[in-house]
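Pasting as-is:
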Amino acid sequence: MGSSPAGSRKRVTINTLRSLHQKQEPITMITAHDFPSAHVADAAGMEMILVGDSLAMVAMGMEDTSEIVLDEMILHCRSVARATKAAFTVGDLPMGSYEIAPEQALESAIRVIKEGRVQAIKLEGGIEMAPTIAKITRAGIPVLGHIGLTPQRQNALGGFRVQGKTTAGALKLLEDALAVEAAGCFAVVVEAVPAEVASLVTQKLEIPTIGIGAGNGCSGQVLVQVDMSGNFPPGRFLPKFVKQYGNVWGESMRAIESYKGEVKQRAYPAPEHTYPIPKTELDEFARLIRQTGA
């Protein structure tokens, strides 16, 4: 399991993403939080893999993304990077690692690239983060922006609420998009925005937009892998924009319950799951045990 079967695929670069955008071919992105989730995403042909801070909740059981710290994100980035042989991999800067000053953000970004072994970083925020984005990109580190609903700021936004639903809100979204583009972002995530607004914003930009809950007028799409693959127990809340493409939880539950049942019944391991020993050696071993016991 130490290498990805995607070795025959050419590595995706920023130039690859720009080419897809120029051809108006949608860019595919999905999250991954460890070696197995990155392994399957890369093998499935995803063009981009995001080590998103959503892993705080889906992989670490935290209440929200504000709990995770930079060292933890770097650990997960490294795990993902070991499995990713072709996809362009992006690491999230967690809350508290970039807001104080552009210099702090650059220091964090350098750590994510050098220690996390990813190709780019992502950070949340619009026009107010433009100087920070410019600082990082001038150092030669690609930045993926993130506007609209920015989960790290959910408390300031009044919760996980759709953004850009008013004329003023839509204009603010466009202002943010243009600002992060001018600051040097190679692409921008647009989250929880009316589809029509996201489409109009996309048309005004020279860089790709990656939508999540923003309609199919964006230049590409991203989903949280745990959500779209159904790797969670029944009854868990899912955002409206999530389409569940699988039932990993159900299949895993079936497999584990079957394993438990066979162990209890001594049906597993069967002879085909064990290692043989020559009868002469076994007989001699048994004889010696009997002698010892006497």
